[in-house]
Specification:
This protein has 300 residues and is α+β, with helices and mostly antiparallel strands. It has 2 domains: 199 residues, no CATH class; 80 residues, Alpha-Beta Plaits (2-Layer Sandwich). The chain contains 11 helices and 4 strands, in the order ααααααααβαβαβαβ.
Length: 300
């Protein structure tokens, strides 16, 4: 099975999981989704009309997919379209089924948490196959490449306007401030669960400093450039801490190589570095504030 087929199976699987999250967990718990999905869900809750959500969702995603085609990449837009079609078809065809009763608070929280986790998994699977579940994920991909921020962080920003709109519609329908605040709390839990799951599974735009201390800097530098030809590194001389001043002249000093890479690239680089020098010592840590000129391969 070639990589292209695997990618399409992955975006379809991501769409299946996301549709299951919406149908059986998000909609029954009546939380507000992020982005234009949030507007669609808020209006469908207000009018108690599932087909209104399907219609608005389809229109909004068509607009955003057109944006993705011209501003992110053609491949990303096409694979996102496959995911969206999968979601729409399954939302229509999946039978009604209740896992928990949303009117009981202890069961509603289960629906919200599990729905958020499932939604995050579906989004991550689509992203890993160079697609998305569309909506705010398209804007997340665009701004993540522009500002080097994790895609989940953009989803939180997109959630602010949609949540405010959803809460307003909730108040118009019930005129109950307590119910509005209750929906806000559960919506925040859903957003946190989904974005944290997404950020933990999809690490393309999370950046780390990788440091290697070695006696074979030539091999390590070759491992870095051969593995990722768009990455560079710095080299710094180092002396072993147990080496005395008298021994320095007779000791082969170490070199410290540092490179900034994404967490997505990290496992492969570690594997190649260990192949070149199994005795080297390495470590890595998260970094913030990297220059916008730092290059990350585009999605799709």
């Amino acid at each position: 099975m070639n990589q292209k087929v695997k990618d399409y199976l992955l975006v379809v699987s991501g769409g299946v999981i996301y549709a299951l999250a919406l149908k059986y967990f998000v909609f029954p718990s009546r939380v507000v989704l992020t982005g234009t999905e949030g507007i669609a869900t808020a209006l469908s809750y207000y009018f108690s009309n599932f087909w209104l959500f399907i219609g608005l969702y389809s229109v909004f995603q068509s607009i955003l997919l057109t944006f993705a085609f011209f501003h992110v990449s053609r491949r990303f837009a096409i694979r996102s379209l496959v995911t969206v079609c999968t979601v729409v078809i399954l939302l229509i065809l999946l039978p009604e089924f209740r896992f928990a009763h949303p009117d009981f608070q202890d069961e509603r929280i289960i629906l919200v948490l599990f729905g958020g986790i499932l939604a995050g998994v579906g989004k991550a699977m689509a992203f890993k196959a160079q697609g998305s579940t569309a909506d705010e994920d398209i804007l997340a991909a665009y701004f993540a490449m522009k500002y080097l921020k994790p895609v989940g962080a953009i989803a939180v920003i997109a959630a602010v306007a949609s949540t405010a709109f959803g809460l307003f519609m909730n108040y118009l329908k019930d005129s109950n401030p307590g119910a509005v605040i209750n929906t806000l709390m559960y919506t925040c839990i859903y957003i946190f669960a989904s974005t944290e799951t997404l950020n933990n599974l999809y690490k393309k735009f999370q950046i780390t400093m990788f440091t290697v201390i070695t006696k074979n800097p030539g091999k390590i530098s070759k491992a870095i450039t051969d593995t990722f030809d768009h990455r560079t590194f710095t080299v710094q001389s180092a002396v072993e801490g147990h080496t005395t001043e008298e021994e320095v002249c007779n000791t082969k000093n170490f070199s410290m190589l540092r490179t900034i890479i994404t967490k997505e690239e990290l496992p492969k680089l570690i594997q190649e570095v260990e192949k070149q020098d199994s005795d080297c010592f390495f470590y890595y840590h998260d970094v913030e504030g990297v220059s916008k000129s730092y290059y990350i391969t585009p999605i799709g």
